[in-house]
TrEMBL record:
InterPro entries linked to this entry: F-box_dom (IPR001810), Zygotic_Embryogenesis-Asso (IPR053222)
Sequence ranges assigned to domain F-box in this UniProt record: 5-54
PROSITE patterns, alphabetized: FBOX
Classification via PANTHER family: CYCLIN-RELATED F-BOX FAMILY, F-BOX ASSOCIATED DOMAIN-CONTAINING PROTEIN-RELATED
Name recorded for this polypeptide: Protein CBG10180
Length: 278
């Protein structure tokens, strides 16, 4: 995606808007970086973006999911010794991927290079449907700066990069849950010890909870605690074939009782070919 010169700034706003509508999405996004006014014009167009996704990991990425395709911006960052994600840092380079085509991308906003936090805010404005995924295992998170830059998050995912998280990973995850759950309505957990999340989920007010491949579902989970979750809908997916039929039946019996719970429905899924042992 090349940052092409577009002679729109000298035109009236209504004419500029009509010209923007004739461009493809890459050209429109490129134009949005030219100035705050250009950005506001692009936001006003109401682009056909299904949702915007931010991945906060070693190389943060921003994904724009549009009808039929996805545009991915990968922001390569310089790292300090403690591997802390600093939202004030400016990406060393930016790569954009659409389909099988990848190339350099160097937008300029108000004649200043944008830092990581500005990138996130810039793309968040394009869609009301916005999701942030945190990848735990290699980096630390500056929780306060994340909350300041991305307030009132409604949908987050926490992904553990290791099969078995260590104490540092667990602490990172608990800090993220503590910081963002008060506002979150949709939470996704990947490879996260389920028993450690119960105290946080129990005091949340979620609409949707998705749990993928919890490492301890059949080991240490107290199913009675699950019935206390303030969740309208919950999906649990596991590939653990060590969960007994007895535990599975007890799980559904407790949920059906709805003790102190407003849960409308639980779905427990097994991967194809996996079956709980008797």
């Amino acid at each position: 995606m090349d940052d092409q010169e577009v002679p729109l700034q000298s035109l009236p706003d209504d004419v500029s808007s009509e010209v923007l509508k004739t461009m493809n999405l890459q050209e429109i996004i490129s134009y949005s970086f030219r100035s705050k006014h250009a950005h506001a014009m692009v936001v006003a167009l109401g682009l056909p973006i299904v949702f915007v996704q931010i991945r906060i990991e070693e190389s943060p990425a921003i994904l724009m999911h549009v009808e039929g395709s996805t545009i991915k911006f990968t922001l390569e960052m310089s790292r300090n010794n403690e591997m802390i994600t600093n939202l004030d840092d400016v990406p060393v380079s930016v790569r954009v991927l659409e389909g099988n085509e990848e190339r350099d991308y160097e937008p300029i906003m108000s004649n200043r290079k944008m830092n990581l936090g500005e990138w996130m805010q810039h793309f968040r404005s394009f869609s009301m449907d916005f999701q942030v995924d945190f990848y735990v295992g290699k980096i630390k998170f500056d929780i306060q700066s994340l909350r300041n830059t991305l307030p009132n998050l409604r949908c987050i995912g926490i992904n553990c990069l290791k099969h078995e998280p260590d104490e540092s990973d667990i602490l990172n995850t608990q800090n993220l849950l503590r910081a963002f759950l008060p506002d979150v309505q949709h939470l996704k957990l990947h490879r996260f010890p389920l028993h450690l999340s119960l105290q946080h989920i129990g005091i949340a007010n979620l609409k949707i909870l998705e749990i993928y491949f919890p490492s301890d579902l059949s080991k240490r989970t107290n199913f009675v605690d699950i019935s206390t979750w303030n969740v309208e809908s919950c999906v649990i997916m596991t590939m653990d074939d060590k969960m007994s039929i007895i535990d599975l039946n007890r799980f559904f019996q407790i949920v059906d009782k709805g003790i102190q719970s407003k849960v409308e429905g639980f779905v427990h899924l097994f991967a194809p070919g996996d079956h709980p042992k008797l």
